[in-house]
């Protein structure tokens, strides 16, 4: 930053910049100075603070994963409060029949609410939604069990509206191993075939719950960029099976992919409310940006748009069942949420912290949604 200041001062003194160049250069310098910093060339001017609310309202905001079951008017109310432009809806999977039925159910919700929702099939849908004050719903699954053993089922799911699919959940399936499977095998031959067909159709390959070697293979075998649409950094939350290593984040980014940092509190770190807070969440963003680059990091909830507490999660109905549903390595905690993230305006709160940490307007906009848009443009097909 000091070097930039010296360069612009030198150019100004020599009169070598045109007026438009002077404005651009000065703006670039000011943008690079944290809000608490001083103005350039020792002028002693405070850097003008960004209006984060205005920035957020004008930005495209996308959630990498919303649990979308039991969608109702409370969901619509929370959506109106969220500032979202779009979200990846996690549709219940199961077998092919159930998967198609659930896709069709969501298609019905979208068709019955044309003034509020748009079915997501391309990046252009997000630009349109922003202009029209609507929200894009991108349909997909957190497992590939609907595919069964037939590659042709991918085409049926695509025709029904699926645009993203996680290759495995926590357990092994026909494609590969999940994150808590005892073994650590990569993609099966059929798994490689599925990835190839997903690339051909324009279905996003998601690796969030995949085991380590399945994640590595997914990145390696996919010809298109891949998503890790709701995960976190292993470097900051050691030995959690759902976290991704620095090598995986870098490999994903090198091929044009994106990681959505998960808001589910117990995924971020231990001792929620003390050691793990909103600041810890943003630490994961910082680390992912450091490893993968500013163009490859986004945001993701992994719960209902309203938040867990608002949807009635209790120790008895949420926490206790997960003690048997998930292995101890999942490190489930109660309560599982970070308070600022467990409400519809969660990403406005994230944007405020990013601003305090010195992120530029453009970089905040990238993390809020522009990185997802870039990814969609490179993976979805018209």
Which structural traits does this protein have?
three-stranded parallel sheet; single chain; 382 residues; six-stranded parallel sheet; disordered N terminus; globular; alpha/beta
Provide structural commentary.
The chain is an alpha/beta fold and 382 residues long. It contains 14 helices and nine strands. The protein has helices at residues 2-14, 19-32, 52-58, 73-82, 96-111, 124-132, 152-159, 189-201, 212-221, 246-254, 278-292, 315-325, 346-356, 361-379, and strands at 62-67, 86-91, 117-119, 135-141, 164-166, 204-206, 227-231, 258-262, 297-300. Strands 1, 2, 3, 4, 5 and 6 form a six-stranded parallel sheet that branches. A three-stranded parallel sheet has the order 7-8-9. The longest helix has 19 residues, at 361-379. It is globular. The two termini are 42 Å apart. The relative contact order is 0.13.
Short précis:
This protein has 382 residues and is α/β, with parallel strands linked by helices.
Total helices: the number is 14
Got a strand count? Answer: 9
Topology as H/E string?
A: HHHEHEHEHEHEHEHEHEHEHHH
Radius of gyration: 22 Å
Q: Percent of residues in beta strands?
A: 5-15%
Main β sheet profile:
6 strands, parallel
Distance between the termini: 42 Å
Overall spatial form: globular
Structural class: alpha/beta
Helix content: 40-55%
Enumerate the spans where pLDDT stays under 50 for 5 or more consecutive residues: 1-47
Overall residue-averaged pLDDT value: 90
